[in-house]
Specification:
Order of helices and strands: EEHHHEEEEHEHEHEHH
Radius of gyration: 20 Å
Number of strands: 9
CATH class of the largest domain: Alpha Beta
């Protein structure tokens, strides 16, 4: 049977050997949004909604831009440095999209690592968070992927990632509990095995709060 809507074309991503999506198909998204408006009983041709399908297509291209980027590339520019104490960048703002309801969740990321002979520019850690956040996902997976990515690319002695986020799929629908915060963590290396390193991390994160 012919598929009226073929799967998005994918092209090889030479940086990691995996497949990455092809260009965003704006017309296909717009057509789907128009169908949703019709299905809920709206008139997609009225003035206020006439350009909504195209706006949503452009929004999805922005919100899911991380699908077409390899965050590992960001962390590959490193500097040789003998510094071996904790490096922590906290309160990195991020916005992502819950894959269960396609509603946003947003919050702060705290990222720490223990160098093993090399360091990375601090802005690169924030950029890695940005790329990984721009995908449909669950917070738990984003936390794990970010920790594994930094551990691998920096060959660190330890990595810690803590995400704190508010989920609109929980605050504006269903249970409707605005203000609830989901916290997830992923510990690697020394942060997992050394209690004092983990205690120092938590003290630094919560200092002056």
């Amino acid at each position: 049977m012919n598929d009226r809507h073929p799967r998005t074309r994918r092209s090889p991503d030479k940086s990691n050997g995996q497949q990455t999506p092809g260009p965003v198909e704006h017309a296909r998204i717009a057509a789907a949004v128009r169908e949703i408006l019709l299905a809920v009983g709206e008139d997609p041709d009225r003035e206020g909604l006439r350009e909504t399908p195209q706006r949503v297509a452009r929004m999805y291209e922005e919100m899911f831009a991380g699908l077409r980027k390899d965050p590992a590339v960001i962390l590959r520019k490193t500097f040789t440095e003998k510094y071996d104490e904790m490096v922590l960048v906290k309160d990195i703002g991020f916005e992502s999209m819950c894959e269960h309801h396609l509603l946003p969740f947003f919050g702060r990321a705290h990222v720490a690592y223990l160098p093993n002979g090399k360091i990375v520019g601090l802005s690169k850690l924030a950029r890695a968070v940005e790329v990984l956040s721009r995908r449909p996902q669950v917070q738990e997976r984003m936390t794990e992927e970010l920790a594994d990515l930094i551990m691998k690319e920096l060959d660190a002695r330890g990595v810690a990632v803590i995400l704190e986020a508010s989920h609109t799929c929980m605050s504006i629908r269903g249970i409707r509990k605005p203000g609830a915060i989901c916290a997830t963590s992923a510990m690697r290396g020394a942060f997992q095995s050394n209690l004092s390193s983990r205690s120092e991390l938590m003290a630094l994160i919560h200092n002056n709060r």
